[in-house]
Amino acid sequence: MRFLVGTAASDKGQSPSVYVVADDKAVNLTALDNSIGHDLRNLIEQGDAQSRVDDLAKGAASIPVADITPALPIAMPGKTICLGLNYTDHIKEGGYDVPEYPALFMRGPNSLMAAGAPMIRPSCSEQLDYEVELMVIIGKGGKHISEADALDHIFAYSVFNDGSVRNYQRKTHQWTPGKNFDATGPIGPYSVTPDELPAGADGLKIECRVGDEILQSANTSEMLWPVAKTIATISEFATLEPGDYIAMGTPPGVGHARTPQRWLRPGETVEVEIEGIGVCASPIVAEEDLKGASA
């Protein structure tokens, strides 16, 4: 199944709805059953999503996907845990040693935003970088999850752009400042259930581009810590809960490692894409322009 959380053009000002998507058409599940709510959380927690959605969507009216403005798949996740240094060539381009344990950091909710919404280049830095990543949405929680069982804990996969303000990331060994500027981490628009993809979302092309300029192009099979191993590792120290996000790290080609360095610029639109999941496109705007517009 392919889900899209968002607001239809005819529903301006209303809360987002959950849609199930087939080709270029979408059925509003929230309108058919208000217990589904306004993001994927209720659908995850209520369980048996496949049969519920099949029953609701059968014969229901649909609208064009193009008429829907995306929202976050999970509006307020309990936690967003991100991997750094999960592709060998990206590790080398950053000047790091290959770690024996995954480099993990967390993102706060204000840093996340929906696909299609503007990524904000902060007024204090021009070094806004791009990072295409596979995003995991946890379906079944747990702690001390075995690697063998880990994939059973996934509700869906999505696309993530881990926008990073590099000079602030490098101010500290902990990376937190550079990874938590407001509106720098778009997710979506689609959330695709595991039955639609290879196990662990392995073997999928993953790419970032601006216009015709391909900035990153790799394959998810190159991850040092695959999805199952990552879930098992994180669950050793943190209880995973339904609706948690796990971002799986980025391949090589990021802007700070290029000569000359390549930062995202206001007026551009950056696209990150994962085969079988979709494209997350984000226009880049300058924070100072937003302040001027609201003055």
Structure description:
This protein is 15% helix and 32% strand. It has seven helices and 20 strands. The protein has helices at residues 29-32, 41-46, 49-57, 88-93, 166-169, 227-234, 287-294, and strands at residues 2-8, 17-22, 25-28, 63-64, 68-70, 80-84, 103-106, 112-114, 119-121, 128-129, 132-138, 154-161, 164-165, 185-187, 190-192, 205-210, 213-219, 245-247, 269-274, 278-286. Strands 1, 2, 3, 4, 5 and 15 form a six-stranded antiparallel beta sheet that branches. The chain has a five-stranded mixed beta sheet with strand order 7-6-18-11-12, with no helix packed on it. A hairpin with a 2-residue loop joins strand 2 and strand 3. The mean pLDDT is 95.
Kindly report the name of the CATH homologous superfamily of the largest domain: Fumarylacetoacetase-like, C-terminal domain
Largest sheet: 6 strands, antiparallel
Percent strand: 25-35%
Indicate the radius of gyration in whole angstroms.
18 Å
The CATH class of the largest domain turns out to be: Alpha Beta
Helix percentage: 10-25%
DSSP helix count? Answer: 7
Kindly state the number of beta strands.
Answer: 20
